[in-house]
Amino acid sequence: MKRLMPLVSIAVVMGLASLAQSALNDYYQRILAVIAINVILAVSLNLTNGYSGDFSLGHAAFMAIGAYTSAILTLPVRTKAVVLPDLPPWLSQVELPFILAPLISGGLAALVAFIVGLPVLRLRGHYLAVATLGLMVIVQVIALNWQPFTRGARGINGLPPFTTVLWAYGWMLITIAVIWRIVHSSFGRAMMAVREDELAAACRGVPIFRTRLLAFVCGAFFASIAGALWAHLITAITPSSFSFLITFNVVAMVVIGGSGSITGSVIGAVLMTLLPELLRRLETALAIGGQPLYGLSQIVIALMMLGVMLFRPQGLMGRRELPEVLALIGTGSTTHSPHVNTTSEKTA
Amino acid sequence: MSVPLLQVRDLDKSFRGVQALQDYHLELGSRELIGVIGPNGAGKTTLFNVLTGVAPATRGQIVFNGQDITRATPDAICCAGIARTFQNIRLFRRLSVLDNVRIGLQAHSHDRLHEVVLRLGGFSTKERLLEQQAYELLDRLDLVEYAVAQADSLAYGLQRRLEIAIALATRPKLLLLDEPAAGMNPTEAEALMRLIARLHSEYHLAIILIEHNMRVVMGVCQRIQVLNYGRLIAEGSPEAIQQDPHVLEAYLGVAV
Fold it and tell me: Where are the beta strands (DSSP E) in B29-118?
């Protein structure tokens, strides 16, 4: 039964996604797709920020790489001749199907992460956070100035709207599955060991640098795929689409959900996508004297984040995962000691 | 025992002009259990840091098992077969006891990313084996009942034992123990002494033991080195060391 759970949930998610795609209107479909993309972003950022303990702020950079790469690769050749006339011939003649473009984008971002990671991951803590933030600025500046490839500040629009709810949720499931497997293996344990105590990890045979680099590169791969999906959902990208705001949002999803919990990242992403959407409706509904309460949603969200940080600084899930929580509920809440709490996890 | 397991020659370690270790040398047989003693600040822990690559030597050469490890990184030295514990216990505090041991065990497992992601190459079998080995090791150190507990929830003495378990998990040929009896009462220290002696024979280990507790050192060590101000001032059997005038001077001061 327990072995079948992942398969059952995959079937359920994909079933619901295809149902949503045929039954819901564009607005809801778009929100559902954005949720899936945010889940991909949060779960992949969690690899560094939650598991290997490297606080990265560069996620928007990899997202931008994914979005632009996928855009250039999938734009129809005839459109490309008009929109990006100065592309080199080997790119202007390409028109890839949507199953390939995100993969190539992911590979490119992973390569960039590898090259950038070699020097940058020698830093730690705040220094690393600032350096990855610098990476985001560099990518934005390149996108602004590399006219033949990016059209600069005008951005690229009229992208084929490939990203459907099904695509988004398909990639979301792949992301969760791959990262879940990495985390629950020797690689994941090595990452957590580095997070807990780098020196002790090194003395117990954990290759520190390689482990941190792996987390960074994998995170970049999936961030890039999320960027590609996002580009083909919104169908227009500009350099300013991939700003600090996005990075901040994704970091908030991870922190609120619980750093070091994949379940937490999923919950954080869903909450941080849905709540602003719901609260925005309240702004007009709660009009006082005909004056809508614009800005209310941001204030409420900021207060909720404050509340989570004050009363549950480890995030909603802490470092627990869904199977553990289910097992806990199953055994009843009588078992308080940590010794008994997690026994059921072992048998899972 | 013609070729020593560990050979250290002319070892110097200085930190910005401060000589922490000077002209240190050691030849250690593959089943030897020796003690390193000396007053606080004598360079004992520095010696371990140099041997494990945490603080590379300023001068000198370290050959372990026929391999020059003077400039090797800590993880490479661990995989070559030197494991250590720390003076102030260093566990992966928020991970389970089982995961702590598994991290030690996987030093030799060399998984590949695609095998992990696609569950190829007998991944599940390997994981099961790793877990089984972890439980066996915990069982031999009487820690099995705490397997799923969070490491930092363990009592102090158990944390010390867990640290030894993690070190053993990396399958060392040489085990470096840095004051394992620190903070223990006489009964606990006695039990630890028996444990060290038992592990020494069961795991076919060489052991270097840094310890302030003289009963423990004199009780288990075959040979003792005494450090003072980073220099080796005496070396010999426990009986000889207890009589050595230099050692008495270092510990008690000069007779007036």
Answer: 33-37, 59-64, 67-68, 82-84
